[in-house]
Write a structure and sequence with these properties.
Radius of gyration of chain B: 21 Å
Mean pLDDT of chain B: 91
Number of domains of chain B: 3
Number of helices of chain B: 19
CATH architecture of the largest domain in chain B: 3-Layer(aba) Sandwich
CATH architecture of the largest domain in chain A: 3-Layer(bba) Sandwich
CATH topology of the largest domain in chain A: FAD/NAD(P)-binding domain
Structural class of chain A: alpha/beta
Oligomer: heterotrimer
Largest sheet of chain B: 4 strands, parallel
Distance between the termini of chain A: 61 Å
Number of strands of chain B: 7
Chains: A alpha/beta (about 1050), B alpha/beta (about 400), C alpha/beta (about 150)
CATH topology of the largest domain in chain B: Rossmann fold
CATH superfamily of the largest domain in chain A: FAD/NAD(P)-binding domain
Number of domains of chain A: 7
Number of strands of chain A: 52
Shape of chain B: globular
Largest sheet of chain A: 5 strands, parallel
Distance between the termini of chain B: 34 Å
Shape of chain A: globular
Helix content of chain A: 25-40%
């Protein structure tokens, strides 16, 4: 299945962690078939082990599990678990990949994930998911929410007793399974294998593995998790007691040449702050200390988080120090931390110590790269180029996530989308070639018909049937109003039962279906398809969860549980009787994108859109393209940025698919996803266009300092001005230069970190040293935030003699002019605790990056939010870094927050990928379950407008002059909050209509109305309940 | 629909007398904004013996029962009484109206009707207030405390009306009886057609008053007053206790020289005739007498006043729709045009609805409606204490700050 | 408790409790309790809504009017709401309703709002246990037996 050029419309994603899943979903939504290959038995990666995520303390599983389900259920995604790449052949657009698939000894098509096998398995093994703090069985599911929910037999430990086989009603156990080699044809490959944890044993001075109360940060994470070994409690391994004093040691396996990891792992600082906060929450009275060199809080709202941790939550931060060693008090198993502070050796006692372990490159990375032929950098991570951060050294093979450099979740997700964009555009012509769309018979109109409900009660093997009296439930269902058919099935979700349901619907003319079985969260879609096969609207379906929320949780009281199941079925039938056929609104998608901002991000987005085969309209407020990038000349390794910019501008200007508007701005936007109407003012001319999506790439600008004599003395300049000077003058006439960091950043007024300025300073310092090693360079900084591989440049600068002087916020350097007219800089060196006096020729200020000036107006126009600093606020800080809550509008680059060149490129590609999932559809189906306004009941008060976070309701004027609310179905997410807030109940929430919910409430208690005499007095549960 | 019941209703309400002159329609505020509706059509249909739709989307629920039609009818047909009767029919058939607040208030009333739960209805009482367990004067507080809970966040402090009433009475040497077991008067249930639960509340309340031995019951709420005076007595015959609205009570007290007003800042007021107090009970002069007797208070009449007054747009917490809103906007603009400092309303529910409308996203410019709203009893109490002041007007911006009740 | 023990507690009051669960966090937490086979009292019945912001105070009052002994509303932790702020709104609404319940004598202790995350199967089971105990101690809904409430 390939296009005329022989390209294949399928992509292989290696790695099923958060990055791999995001890439897979983007690709699958855009019409490509995706194979997700992961060596683990289930997807989820490292994020599945997390308890909470920083800085919002989102429950990791809450936000991850919808992604797991979406990936597992997507009809264009094929999961290849417990598999590895064996070999690859072919060329970009047409690869053949040989995948080695290990036997899992459980038939994936038969296993229902019920877990009975696990309950009975006699063998207990170290549970890697819980870092060995817990045991698992030899037949197991990696974690409870694992996708696919298929068990695996660990043959290394299995004794082959066969108990699982006897337990498995589905007959899924297959001991004869063998490793197989599968051949898969794909057009592109994305590598998202993640990382491996640094082995803290290698830092012998910290005693990990020797002292019981020294933990790794990942072990602590499992302890903190509600699903972890101690259900969220932190306990000292030596005695099981709650700790009172906890210390975190940072940079274990990071920024450490000795262990071969000179780079910074980027995430451990925030990870430690988060764990310290959560550990305190979970452990009353716990004192937490973090020992570190620099606090690398460079992400969105990280610095505020860090400040809150210290000021509001009392976390003790010990700065500028690396703990030298840990020793143990053999009697108490308490630990002594030895460290230097202001040049003096100190010892402090703790009862538990956590090592913030860094990122290593993924396990067996050499094998993978050898087979794929891609190059690794010197740290064994994937080698990438500043200009093409998503491409590996092999064309057609792309990279994202921690494998290209250690990074946190949002950066990984943005990159994953970006890699998907690169992978797609390579095979743009083959879009849709490999995916099939299922055809259903025409829908029968049941409106006006009396409800005829069919009830199917599932035994789920013995999962339900072993506890509840399932046949009696089916009999009971027959007595309920509107029920014309009820039956019980061994497995209602099995292929043959679904076939029978479909036939029964047609035979008996059922127009509503209730399935009483497991959870609607995983099984609704399956049964909805069954309804559609019988010609019924999928929304005429309701589930009663009598397994996860009944038989499994009331195993010891079968009779009462059966009675509860009756109530649950009665509630489901009551609602089902009131269900109606729903049709989602359809919008025809305009195959064109509006990109606001013509800097690096905007231009990258436009080019990628064009490569993918769509039109892009690029709006730039200046008279020429380039934005802030026009002021950047070279990269850290000497890359020619201006040359790149020139090529990029030419590419944009030459592309027929890209229309550029300069000296232009957006005047007006209306409409919604799929069809936005935008009015662009370009050089005074007003142009009206229709666009399917909008990408916000408004960039940022350099802060104009008011500090340090800037603007008063020409010898004081910003880093960008200095860079300009270095390049244009080619030499530098100076003996001494002082650089000051954090000018306008991390202040009371602007508490955020501008992220790039530390590296920018290091870069320019290196350039000075390169030009003339004799020039003295002093860099006055607060925390050196050269995260990731940038750490190497910091080290190089120090090696080349750049003097780094740390000052504290309260002791800002003072720049003045002495009586001889020379510049004079005074600074209190925090480490030496003495004041230094320097007379430099130039003072160079690392000025903050500010949000673009027009952001507020644009935000108002697009109805999207800004954060308190004026940067745009994404839909979700962790998992939706390039989306807005409003569908069809995306963001990237400095509009989101200050960031590096390669990060901007990745994010711009990411925004395009998200946009392609819309642009690649011809028509867009909205949610079917949306809120509707009854105009006759609406008073147009606008409370719904204030309630909705997604901008779905707006006030419109009717012809008769009345103002009423109107809900845009394309924007409504179906939460129903507006319906509650509406004082006159003019808003109906489809599928959760007031009468539907009330019918369930009423039927929950309706049996209570039966006269007591009719009850079976002999069975106690029957008497006592309700 | 029970034909016999409808026949009886037609005769009870004098609907036979309708000559289809259409005067009722010309004054009906609902018709003005919703031409589909006309009070006489409801009656005409019934007279013609037509099988009527009593479900929630029918005409019988749209009517505001403001009785401006009754007032206008040359033959004194009781349209609102007829409508209420039809709602009773609908209720017996299992139809319920669409209630604003989703029926929360009606459910609360049903619960009160069917149980004797220990209510916390006296939490508003402060130490300064002197009350008695038994006595001649009974203060019927009604649902003010509950409404404050439901509309919390709007800072209405409706129960201040009760405090003010007690303070005024104390000043006159009266220590009124307030009851912890008093229940909602049932006004809203009655007008929603739920006669069964209404009667339960009625019987309870009448018993509470009888047990208290009071000779006079004072109502700060026009709805409670109407319900006792007209509806309860309709069912139970004349009571041997006197019922008086606070405005009558105060007017009399002033006449008898029992109240003296100290010096205050000057305030000009305009008065909203709530339909229950005005058209239903005919109490137009009493509140005006009180307001004009306060030395520092000036009264400016609204353009539409007394029996021509527009209603606040909602009655009995049913259908608060765009028709209601147009009425509210009209009322507020009328009030603002008087250039008075405050709009005074005797009815807590009118105050809720009018306050709500000014917080709305309205097509009407804020400057045309931003007049503060004050409760009648509270204003009198403040004047008596020499503490008269003009509250801030509620506006759209305030909505963003206070949480909007739902 | 085992079936065999049941007759011994024949006279014991068994409350009937309605639990509103939001689809994304609490309902998933309830499912996890199931997957983990955590046992909790049979008295609770879950009604799934997409968001705790969909729970109209009237639904709760109606359940109580019909004889529910307790009503539990569960949603995502503040900050975790799938719809950004539905849980915040639920919280405000339920606080208001609580005051009303106190005033009319049903008592706000018959309803409770809890945040339960998708990973908190244990918490779900614990909350069910605790709330059932709490309601058992409170005794039956006084509206039961009245015409409004169930019998």
């Amino acid at each position: 299945m390939s296009d005329e050029e022989g390209k294949i419309g399928a992509v292989m994603v290696v790695g099923g962690g958060i990055a791999g899943m995001q890439a897979a979903l983007d690709l699958a939504d855009s019409g490509y078939l995706v194979y997700v290959v992961d060596s683990s038995p289930s997807i989820g990666g490292a994020m599945a082990q997390l308890d909470k995520t920083f800085p919002t303390h989102d429950c990791a599983m809450c936000i991850l599990s919808p992604k797991l389900v979406a990936t597992g259920r997507h009809q264009n995604v094929k999961l290849m678990m417990a598999s590895d790449i064996h070999a690859i052949e072919g060329k970009p657009g047409n690869f053949t990949v040989f995948v080695k698939r290990k036997a899992r000894y459980v038939d994936e098509t038969k296993c229902t994930g019920c877990g009975l096998c696990t309950l009975r398995c006699p063998i207990e093994v170290r549970d890697e998911y819980n870092k060995g703090l817990k045991l698992r069985k030899a037949i197991y599911l990696k974690y409870p929410q694992a996708v696919p929910p298929v068990h695996t037999i660990d043959r290394d430990h299995c004794i082959g007793c066969g108990v699982c086989e006897t337990q498995c009603e589905a007959g899924a156990i297959d001991f004869s399974g063998e490793e197989e080699l599968v051949k898969v044809d794909v057009g592109s490959v994305i590598l998202a294998p993640g990382f491996s944890e640094f082995d803290p044993r290698l830092k012998t001075e910290y005693g990990y593995g020797v002292f019981k109360n020294v933990l790794s940060s990942v072990e602590l994470e499992r302890m903190l998790s509600a699903t972890g070994p101690y259900r969220g409690m932190v306990l000292r391994p030596s005695d099981g007691k709650r700790p009172k004093r906890m210390a975190f040691i940072q940079c274990v396996g990071s920024r450490d040449v000795q262990v071969g990891n000179p780079y910074c792992s980027s995430v451990c600082c925030m990870f430690a702050v988060k764990e310290a906060l959560i550990a305190r929450e979970h452990t009353p009275g716990l004192e937490t200390h973090i020992f570190f060199m620099d606090m690398r809080a460079f992400g969105k709202e990280f610095d505020e988080y860090y400040a809150r941790a210290e000021e509001e939550h009392g976390i003790v931060f010990t700065r500028n120090t690396r703990v030298a060693r840990v020793s143990q008090n053999p009697e108490t198993n308490n630990l002594y931390l030895w460290y230097a502070e202001h040049g003096k050796m100190k010892r402090e006692e703790f009862d538990i110590v956590v090592l913030s372990i860094g990122f290593d490159s993924p396990k067996d990375v050499e094998k993978l790269t050898e087979k794929l032929g891609i190059k690794l950098n010197k740290h064994d991570f994937c080698q990438t180029d500043m200009f093409t951060p998503l491409d590996t050294s092999e064309p057609g093979i792309y990279v994202c996530g921690a494998f290209s450099s250690p990074k946190d979740i949002p950066d990984s997700v943005a990159q994953a989308s970006g890699a998907a964009c690169r992978a797609m555009s390579e095979i743009a012509g083959a879009r849709g070639a490999m995916v099939t769309v299922k055809e259903y018979p025409p829908e029968i109109d049941v409106s006006g018909q009396e409800p005829k409900v069919g009830v199917f009660v599932c035994h789920c093997g013995i999962n339900i049937g072993g506890v509840l009296d399932v046949p009696s439930l089916a009999e009971y269902a027959k007595t309920l109003p509107n029920v014309v058919h009820a039956e019980d099935n061994l497995y209602t979700c099995s292929q043959d039962t679904q076939q029978r349901i479909s036939e029964t619907i047609m035979e008996k003319g059922l127009n509503r279906v209730v399935v009483a079985s497991c959870t609607p969260r995983t099984h609704t879609t399956i049964f909805q398809n069954t309804l559609m096969e019988a010609g019924l609207n999928p929304h005429l379906f309701e589930m009663a969860n009598i397994r996860d929320q009944c038989s499994w949780v009331h195993m010891n009281v079968p009779k009462r549980a059966t009675k509860k199941a009756r109530t649950l079925i009665r509630m489901a039938v009551a609602k089902a009787s009131l269900l109606e056929q729903l049709k989602p609104a359809e919008v025809e998608v305009v195959k064109s994108a509006l990109v606001i901002g013509g800097g690096l991000s905007g231009m990258t987005a436009a080019v990628e859109l064009a490569r993918a085969g769509f039109d892009a309209h690029l709006v730039e407020k200046d008279s020429e393209l380039g934005g802030l990038l026009r002021r950047i000349h070279f990269g850290c390794s000497g890359e020619d940025v201006q040359g790149f910019l020139e090529r990029l501008v030419k590419q944009v200007e030459d592309d027929d698919r890209i229309r550029v508007y300069t000296s232009a701005e957006l005047k007006e936007v209306s409409g919604s996803v799929g069809d936005f109407a935008a009015v662009i003012d370009s050089d005074g001319e007003e142009i009206e266009t229709h666009q399917g999506v909008i990408i916000v790439a408004t960039g940022g600008e350099e802060y104009e300092p008011t500090e340090y004599l800037y603007g008063k003395d020409p010898r004081v300049m910003t880093q960008l001005e200095f860079e300009e000077k270095l390049v244009t003058e080619g030499e530098i006439d100076a003996k001494c230069i002082v650089m000051v960091h954090c000018v306008g950043s991390r202040t009371t007024e602007r508490p955020y970190c501008s992220r790039v300025c530390c590296t920018e300073s290091v870069k320019n310092a290196l350039r000075v040293k390169e030009m003339n090693p004799g020039i003295a360079v002093y860099s006055l900084f607060r925390d050196m935030r050269t995260y990731g591989f940038r750490e190497e440049f910091y080290r190089e600068a120090a090696e080349k003699g750049v003097v780094f002087i740390r000052f504290l916020e309260e002791n800002e350097p003072v720049v003045s002019i002495d009586d001889q007219g020379k510049l004079e800089v005074r600074v209190l060196d925090d480490i030496l605790q003495e004041e230094l006096l320097i007379n430099p020729d130039y003072v160079v200020l690392a000025a903050a990056t500010l949000p673009a000036r027009g952001n507020e107006e644009l935000a108002r126009m697009l109805k999207v939010p800004l954060n308190s600093h004026g940067f745009f606020l994404e839909a979700h800080m962790k998992l939706r870094p390039v989306d807005f809550a409003t569908d069809g509008i995306f963001l990237c680059g400095l509009a989101h927050l200050p960031k590096f060149f390669e990060e901007n490129v990745s994010q711009a590609c990411g925004a395009v990928s998200r946009a392609l999932s819309i642009l690649s559809q011809d028509t867009l189906e909205g949610e079917a379950t949306i809120a509707l306004v009854d105009e006759s009941m609406c008073r147009g008060c606008g409370v719904c407008v204030d309630t909705c976070e997604f901008g779905a309701p707006s006030l419109i004027m009717l012809e008769n002059g009345r103002q009423v609310s109107h809900i845009d179905g394309a924007l409504c997410k179906g939460c129903g909050s507006c319906s509650v807030s509406c004082c006159n109940k003019a808003i109906t929430m489809l599928n959760f209509r007031t009468d539907q919910v009330l019918s369930m409430v009423e039927s929950c208690f309706s049996e209570a109305k039966t006269p007591p005499a009719k009850r079976e007095a002999t069975v106690v549960e029957e008497v006592t309940e309700t | 629909m029970d034909k016999e019941n409808v026949k009886r209703l037609i005769s009870d309400m004098g609907a036979h007398d309708c000559v289809e002159c259409g005067k009722c329609t010309t004054v009906c505020p609902v018709t003005r904004f919703n031409p589909e509706f006309a009070p006489r059509l409801v009656v005409v249909k019934a007279l013609a013996g037509e099988e009527m739709d009593l479900s929630k989307d029918s005409d019988i629920w749209i009517c505001n029962t403001c009785e401006i039609c009754n007032n206008m009818c040359p033959y004194e047909v009781d349209y609102s009484g007829f409508i209420r009767g039809m709602r009773g029919e609908a209720s017996r058939e299992g139809h319920e109206p669409d209630c604003s607040q989703g029926g929360l208030l009606h459910a609360m009333m049903r619960i009160m009707a069917n149980s004797d739960l220990p209510q916390k209805r006296l939490d508003w009482i402060t130490d300064e207030l002197k009350l008695a367990d038994k006595g001649d004067v009974f203060l019927f507080v009604g649902c003010l405390p509950q409404l404050d809970a439901i509309f919390e966040g709007r800072n209405l402090d409706l129960v201040e009306t009760a405090r003010s009433a007690v303070r005024i009475m104390n000043r006159m040497g009266i220590e009124p009886v307030v009851s912890p077991i008093e229940k909602c008067c049932g006004h809203d249930l009655n007008w929603a057609g739920d006669e069964k639960n209404f009667i339960k509340l009625m019987n309870h309340n009448v018993q509470v008053i009888k047990d208290s031995g009071a000779k006079t019951v004072v109502f700060p709420c026009p709805e409670c007053m109407r319900t006792f005076d007209l509806d309860y007595q309709d069912f139970l015959g004349d009571f041997d206790f006197e019922m008086t609205h606070i405005s009558e009570f105060l007017a009399r007290a002033i006449e008898e020289g029992k109240l003296e007003f100290p010096e205050n800042i000057s305030i000009s007021t305009t008065f909203h005739d709530s339909c229950r107090l005005g058209r239903h009970l005919g109490l137009y002069d009493e509140p005006r007498k009180v307001l004009t007797e306060i030395p520092s208070v000036e009264l400016v009449e609204l353009e539409k006043n007394r029996d021509a007054a527009t209603c606040c747009g909602v009655s009995g917490f049913m259908s608060c729709n765009s028709t209601s809103k147009v009425m509210q906007m009209e009322k507020m603009q009328d009030a603002k045009r008087t250039e008075a400092d405050v709009l005074v309303t005797p009815c807590a529910k009118c105050r809720i609805h009018l306050d709500c409308s000014t917080r709305d996203e309205t097509p009407v410019d804020n400057d045309l409606i931003n007049i503060p709203i004050m409760d009648f009893t509270v204003l009198v109490d403040m004047a008596l204490r020499g503490k008269l002041q003009i509250p801030d007007a509620q506006d759209k911006e305030a909505r963003m700050e206070d949480e909007k009740p739902e | 408790m085992t079936e065999a023990m049941a007759p011994a507690i024949e006279e014991e009051f068994q409350p009937s409790i309605l639990v509103f669960c939001c689809n994304w966090c609490s309902y998933a937490g309830a499912d996890l309790a199931g997957v983990s086979r955590l046992q909790y009292p049979v008295n609770v019945k879950v009604l799934r809504v997409m968001c705790s912001g969909r729970v109209d105070p009237y639904f709760i009052l109606r359940a109580l009017e019909l004889g529910a002994d307790g009503v539990l509303i569960t949603g995502c932790e503040i900050g975790d709401c799938h719809y950004i702020s539905g849980n915040v709104k639920a919280k405000e609404r339920i606080e208001r309703l609580s005051k009303l319940l106190d005033q009319i004598g049903i008592g706000s202790d018959r309803i409770r709002l809890e945040w339960i995350a998708a990973s908190e199967g244990t918490k779900f089971a614990q909350v069910m246990e605790e709330f059932t105990d709490h309601i058992t101690n409170l005794g039956p809904n006084p509206l039961k037996g009245s015409e409004t409430g169930g019998g």
